[in-house]
Amino acid sequence: MTATIQSIGEQGLLKLVQRFCPADIIGDDGAVLAITPNHHLVVTTDVLIDNVHFSDRTTPPHSVGWRSAAANLSDLAAMGATPIGLTIGLGLPADTSVAWVEGLYEGIQDCLRQFGGAIVGGDLARSSVRTIAITAFGQVKPSHVLTRSTAQVGDAILVTGYHGSARAGLELLLHSDSGHDLAVVDRQVLVRAHQYPTPQLAVIAELGDRAAGMDSSDGLADAVLQICRSSQVGAILDQSAIPIAPALQRYNSEQAIDWALYGGEDFELVLCLSPDAAQALLPKLPIGAAIIGQITAATAVELRQRSGEVEMLNFDRGFQHF
Amino acid sequence: MTATIQSIGEQGLLKLVQRFCPADIIGDDGAVLAITPNHHLVVTTDVLIDNVHFSDRTTPPHSVGWRSAAANLSDLAAMGATPIGLTIGLGLPADTSVAWVEGLYEGIQDCLRQFGGAIVGGDLARSSVRTIAITAFGQVKPSHVLTRSTAQVGDAILVTGYHGSARAGLELLLHSDSGHDLAVVDRQVLVRAHQYPTPQLAVIAELGDRAAGMDSSDGLADAVLQICRSSQVGAILDQSAIPIAPALQRYNSEQAIDWALYGGEDFELVLCLSPDAAQALLPKLPIGAAIIGQITAATAVELRQRSGEVEMLNFDRGFQHF
């Protein structure tokens, strides 16, 4: 029997692919390339497929564009880089409406106008499924590269904002009968979290030269686990400190912590820095930012629940692409 | 009726998309970004779709990988840039064989080993159709950027190699009954031209700082027309000077000139430079390189046929993606 990518799974496929990449420039949100002594180039790429990463049911074209750009800008932020620009490769069925393409580009452009960078190129191809391939690049001073692998025992773990809201917004969009007694404004806040996430580029300028981190695009649990694995440390998180938006508390307080840990696509940053630096940074961040735990010398990532019980987090709950 | 991208056509779609890009960095093979005073970054992107740009019938996975990389490296060469690296975004059906993915990456890696650059990142997504999105970036000294828009009246038009062979190779792969009396070695030369094109990076180092040009990925006629439009000049080409590989002459001498002009995917460079510079460059280039005409003050691109008749070239014969 021929082995398929389904049979080896996403981790197997990643391992296969990583054999072909230089070991020192992969395994983070973006690749860092030393172009000149004072400027490092950061490159990151995303492929988004209709009915996998977006759909007409949940995301109008303007939002598809915004999210596509925001996800890539978030990867740049997660490397400490500021955006230069991005390229857009599109695969489109011939019956795609012009309005959809226009909305997509307007969404991308609006996101770049707000956070920096320009559309600097692209390619158009005929395909049976709408496909968006974005490659973004940014620049960072060599001393300010933010990686996953430098968290230190005793570091505070800080998140730049609320978690779980994007997943809640998706739920509301997918199930029209859900949240029928939710206030209109709460619904808007959650739907907006899904359709118009904010890449955390503003915080980059506030960071010193000793921080580890990544973004929470695949969920808060995944981010902490990835950082701990890369840095060969453990962590303890305090469940009651994980910031949940009031709108999400009112919508579904039972699901909230699960969506915060595993929902993904909140595009916040998860940062590890000295407790003093974390305390100093916190007042400069928007409401929702919080210190949620600390880095330990253990090998596990533990979650101290409200009840006092301690749960071990692991990768099994994350999203599997294949 | 809702307008579709089919109804506005490829040119209409390009116009729409270009509204969103800064005017000074589009319209060439790649975008040029001034990162530092001494290093400009060149970025180019391609989307390749199963059964549009490649197929199991004509291209084994290793060749799909090689061609994908070569097409992007050719775009870098067409801007005068040397490769730094590329990212690979893949959309894959779950039943894709592991061997296909492995072959693809090996093909990309073999091409980069020979011509420079590394695989520096990527993304994997589930899709119903095999999709390859490659973004390549390279660097070029600001004084050595090669553009389409600086051809001058009196310039010689030089091509770096044979044209039409890639299209002939595709023909042989698509029609097993074709060329049945062709020598095995001729068949191999033509099939190889389709499956393993050579990006013309070697010539870059030989160019002075006054050359215009692009690659012939969409055919020789398209390249000359694009250069003339961008430079607001005309051209006269000498049909008898257009280099046709001996293997192609033997395979199909009647079709040869048509495939050379319109077949595409030969990935040679079409350069415009002073007659003296062209004569000096020619001996340094591989067999097949030739001076095929000159830039004129006319508004048309003319082809002087062997018979002495003059034909006007235009864009209508090119490949339409939508």
Written overview of the protein:
Chain A is built from nine helices and twelve strands. The first copy, chain A, starts with a helix and ends in a 9-residue tail after the last strand. The radius of gyration of chain A is 19 Å and the shape is globular. Chain A is α+β, with helices and mostly antiparallel strands. Chain A has helices at about 5-20, 60-75, 100-115, 165-175, 185-195, 220-230, 245-250, 255-260, 275-280; strands spanning about 30-35, 40-50, 80-90, 120-125, 130-140, 155-160, 210-215, 235-240, 270-275, 290-295, 300-305, 310-315.
Quick take:
The structure is a homodimer of 322-residue chains. With 322 residues, chain A is of the alpha+beta class. Chain A contains nine helices and twelve strands.
Overall radius of gyration of chain A: 19 Å
Largest interface: A-B, 75 and 75 residues
Biggest β-sheet of chain A, characterized?
A: 7 strands, mixed
The overall average pLDDT of chain A, rounded, is: 93
Structural class of chain A: alpha+beta
Shape of chain A: globular
As an assembly, this protein is homodimer
Strand order of the largest sheet of chain A: 7-9-6-10-8-11-12
Number of helices of chain A: 9
Q: Spans of chain A of 5+ residues with little confidence (pLDDT < 50)?
A: none
Q: How much of the residues of chain A is beta strand, in percent?
A: 15-25%
Distance between the termini of chain A: 19 Å
* Helix-strand topology string of chain A: HEEHEHEEEHHEHEHHEHEEE
Helix fraction of chain A, binned, reads 25-40%
Task: Give the tally of β-strands of chain A.
Answer: 12
